[in-house]
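Appendix B. One record, verbatim.
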Amino acid sequence: MKEAQYRVIEHKSDKFSIELDGVVVEAVARGRLKRDGEILVGDFVVLDENMTEPVIARVAPRRNSLVRPGVANIDLVVIVVAPVPETDGFLVDKLIVNCKEAGIDCLICLNKSDIANTERERLVREYGTDVAGVVVTAAINGEAAELKPYLTGKVVCFAGQSAVGKSTLSNAILGGDERTVGELSERISRGRNTTTSARLLRSPDGFYFVDTPGFSVLDTFGVKANELALYYDEYVRLSDDCKFHPCTHTSEPGCAVKAAVGSGNLSRERYERYVKLYGDLREAEKRRTK
């Protein structure tokens, strides 16, 4: 007989809210499972049948996981951006690389479209080949129809800076006020984060949703500097035309990627962030070998 596997929908302190067939119970973990990262929101867990109270005995193998936000078994990461605060392109680049490394589809959602102008065109130009799509919403007006078809039947994680409207957007797709909505600090144009813990919400429309705390810093895990270009679809497509193989598309002469940037066929801004990220990864590798 197959063991019952509960899905972890929330973790607070030493308690885990777990769900099976729509029924939610609270469980605890013992031993090494109590350590941070051993059990993530989105994990499937098996209970110890010898205990009278729900105690997690083990975690089922994960399909994937992300670090900051720490979530597991995700089908789609929706990277939420907005005209205000200004999009942190470096964060978006790192999120896309991390998703590809983990084998997770990602989508860019431009929220607050009521104040957007040409931002969608720029996002499509920079990221269109690397994401499942670029959609536009106006969550404050309850407009999320363009996003919803991508969510059906999936476990979905929202990620992005604070104050881009992740909480408002989650309310628009789930209904009600599941999350507290904060206001943007006009003084420094950065958001006050209103989501303080990851939680998996079940939608009546047939998907699970994780609203994660906003953040502005993300490390790139498990990616080697010399393999970074493999996570940029346009760079992979052009690499056959480079003079040197492999080509890092940084300092080599006769590089097709650099030529495409120079001619305006590729985004210079994203390329410059790529070079910086490549340099950061090289420095991190040097520090690890000392």
